[in-house]
Amino acid sequence: QVRLVESGGDVVELGGSLEVACQASADDITHIFPLYDMAWYRQIPGKQRELIGKIARDGEMVIEESMKDRFTLSRDKTTNTFSLGMTRLRLEDTATYFCNARSSWSLAVDYGEEYWGVGTLVTVAK
């Protein structure tokens, strides 16, 4: 079983900064996380889950255009952690932030499978 555990959600002052992290783990060695594409999503109450950005297993990074001037992604393949840095937070950034992993190596036993964490809540307050 694959587990993704997000952490770092908090109440942050308007205009502040925060980093949330995702720790990936699995019960067996067949899940090799450096071979997974990792992504962050967020969901605002009453709205659909939206993609923030992702780092593919080859290191290619993509961040949604509307967020790339304030949000950064980083990934440590040695510790299986994946982080989202957020600056100049706005009220509308209040959301639950979710970590996602997708098995993208065609020879992997779980090729094509996606996994989700339960999310971490970020609240931006005045």
Q: Provide the β-strand percentage band.
A: over 45%
The profile of the biggest β sheet is: 7 strands, mixed
Number of helices: 0
Mean pLDDT: 94
Tell the overall outline: elongated
The total count of strands amounts to 11
Low-confidence stretches: none
Rg from alpha-carbon coordinates? 14 Å
Helical content stands at: under 10%
Broad structural category: mainly beta
Q: In whole angstroms, how far apart are the ends?
A: 40 Å
The SSE order reads EEEEEEEEEEE
What labels would you give this structure?
126 residues; 7-stranded mixed β-sheet; elongated
Describe it.
The protein contains no helices and eleven strands. Strand 5 and strand 6 (61-63) form a beta hairpin. With 126 residues, it is an all-beta fold. The radius of gyration is 14 Å and the shape is elongated. Strands 2, 4, 5, 6, 9, 10 and 11 form a seven-stranded mixed beta sheet that branches. A four-stranded antiparallel beta sheet has the order 1-3-8-7, with no helix packed on it. The relative contact order is 0.32. Helix content is 0%, strand content 52%.
How would you summarize this macromolecular structure in one to three sentences?
With 126 residues, the protein is mainly β.
Compile the SSE list and pairings.
Blueprint: E1 2-7, E2 11-13, E3 18-26, E4 36-43, E5 50-55, E6 61-63, E7 71-76, E8 81-86, E9 95-103, E10 114-116, E11 120-125
Parallel strand pairs: 2-11
Antiparallel strand pairs: 1-3, 3-8, 4-5, 4-9, 5-6, 7-8, 9-10, 9-11
